[in-house]
Write a structure and sequence with these properties.
Elements (H helix, E strand, L loop, with lengths): L3 E4 L2 E4 L6 E3 L9 H20 L9 H15 L3 E3 L3 H18 L7 H26 L2 H27 L10 E2 L2 E2 L6 H7 L1 H13 L2 H20 L3 H21 L3 H26 L2 H11 L12 H14 L21 H32 L6 H17 L9 H15 L11 H4 L2
Antiparallel strand pairs: 1-2, 3-4, 5-6
């Protein structure tokens, strides 16, 4: 670990080693404001995580609470880390070209177009903040964030499931097209939101023992059912992929021979329990009918001249012919009344070639950092496994759905960069197996 130089309000990490410098420093003595901000920073970040579960309008509570978090981080002297700088540099590259794209709109006001771009840039900045916040102490800070995230995800999953079963008043508020959207605008966002904490719960179930493992299994089961009743085909594939990745990565990289035997037994038992739960749900006629309908690989909105894949082809042609883009949400006002549902095509079309390139680079660099970290033995590898297990399928899912305004997408980017930036920082608790887990 790099040397530290004490400042009056906290710690200045030795920048010669390329680590970080504080965002704020009082050169005379620690102030009451510093101590107050430092004590409240983690709870405020936890509140920010909880707010991420309630996205009905834009701006959402997530953005508003994040603004409240910033002064606490500033006065607490949160570090700025060199290894996270790439997120900010890509944002600087992205923003001017995205704003140029906003001026290309024809069917909406430039103000509306700029607001869309500002929301994207704002979410991008939240990734940069999360990365720097986590990098100071990955296990402790990511742990606090994930406990809050898991809490709100379990709440959403339970509310959504009860609403789907129509056993709570006002159940229709939490449904859309008979699918669970809970506290989101769309079931296709609700389902994937639950998978990051589900990946961490699965890892604890596999690698811990006793009551902690049992509680993790219960949490995973609740979240799994929540994903199922969203009836999002992408989310179904997403949770299967991420769960398999966590299992294989833990089995090959972290488990000893005794662990591996236990993991095989747990996996077999877990699959059996989940199958029984699904059979129980499918015994309900309405659930079974919707499952059969959604389980089809091709829906009527996927095919035809105005289907998903035709829209993507047309959108790509437009993007190639418009280097500055056509502006936010313009595509739906042209000959096709829906978005292309491909984030990689959409960012080219919305933000122009350079804006799209910046977005592609963010995704690629995040994948590279996450995968590279897995090959480096460290207690923090246990943090990275669920993160990259969640990000890979999310990056793939982005090819069939628009994720450029998904809060948890940018949050996950920040988490991966933060763990990577602080990969060498290990606290005392992480010397034990249980201490490595979240």
């Amino acid at each position: 670990m790099s040397s530290h130089t004490a400042l009056a309000n906290g710690v200045l990490k030795n920048t010669a080693s390329g680590n970080s410098a504080p965002a704020f420093a009082n050169r005379h003595h620690p102030t009451q404001l510093y101590f107050l901000s430092k004590s409240w920073l983690a709870p405020m970040v936890g509140l920010w995580m909880i707010a991420g579960g309630f996205v009905i309008l834009e701006p959402s509570p997530y953005e508003l609470v994040f603004i409240l978090v910033l002064p606490f981080a500033y006065f607490a002297g949160m570090g700025i880390h060199r290894r996270t700088l790439g997120i900010f540099q890509l944002l600087v590259l992205f923003l001017p070209f995205a704003l140029i794209g906003a001026f290309q709109v024809r069917h909406m006001s430039v103000t509306s177009g700029m607001l869309y771009v500002i929301v994207t840039a704002f979410l991008w900045f939240t990734a940069y903040f999360a990365a720097n916040y986590i990098a100071d102490d990955p296990q402790k800070r990511l742990g606090g964030m994930m406990r809050a995230y898991t809490g709100v995800a379990v709440f959403i999953s339970i509310i959504g499931t009860l609403a789907y079963l129509d056993v709570i008043p006002g159940a229709e508020i939490f449904l859309r097209y008979d699918r669970v959207k809970a506290t989101f605008q769309d079931p296709n966002v609700c389902g994937p939101f639950l998978i990051i904490p589900a990946s961490f719960a699965l890892q604890r179930m596999l690698m811990d023992q006793g009551k902690r493992s049992l509680w993790a299994a219960v949490i995973f089961g609740i979240l799994f059912v929540g994903v199922f009743v969203s009836f999002s085909r992408a989310a179904w594939g997403y949770i299967i992929f991420s769960s398999a990745f966590v299992l294989v990565a833990c089995f090959l990289l972290e488990a000893n021979s005794k662990d591996r035997t236990r993991m095989i037994m747990l996996t077999m038992a877990g699959v059996l329990v989940l199958l029984i739960a699904l059979i129980g749900l499918l015994s309900i006629e309405s659930v079974r009918d919707l499952f059969i309908q959604r389980f089809s690989l091709s829906q009527n909105y996927d095919s035809g001249s105005t289907g998903r894949f035709a829209r993507q082809t047309y959108a790509l042609e437009l993007a190639i012919n418009n280097p500055f883009g056509i502006g936010p949400l313009e595509f739906r006002n042209m000959r096709i009344v829906e978005e292309p549902h491909n984030t990689y095509v959409k960012v080219l079309l919305t933000y122009g070639w350079i804006g799209g390139l910046a977005y592609f680079s963010l995704v690629w660099m995040t994948l590279k950092k996450g995968m590279s970290a897995l090959w480096k033995a460290s207690p923090n590898r246990m943090l990275m496994i669920p993160l990259i297990a969640s990000f890979i399928p999310l990056a793939l899912e982005s090819a069939i759905i628009d994720t450029d305004h998904w809060r948890h997408f940018f949050l996950l980017v920040g988490m991966i960069w933060g763990v990577d930036a602080g990969y060498h920082r290990v606290n005392e608790a992480q010397k034990t197996r249980r201490g490595k887990l979240i």
